[in-house]
User: What shape does this take?
Amino acid sequence: MGASIGALVVRRLTRTAARLTPASMTQSLSESAGRLVDSVRDFVDDARASAKERRAELMESTGLDGGPASTNPEELRKP
Assistant: This one.
């Protein structure tokens, strides 16, 4: 039983040492940075799409989109 536990400890230490090499840490950081960039890009794309939708809603509701409310001068004068 002691030999089995010893083998498991050695295996665990070997894996940990492999993860802590400069090359492994560089790769891990590179992958993490790539995921962060992808997340930021997705967020910016979503924010732009939402802003575009909201702008269209506001333009339509105020009649500034060239719809009927902005083309009829009589309707613009009504209180």
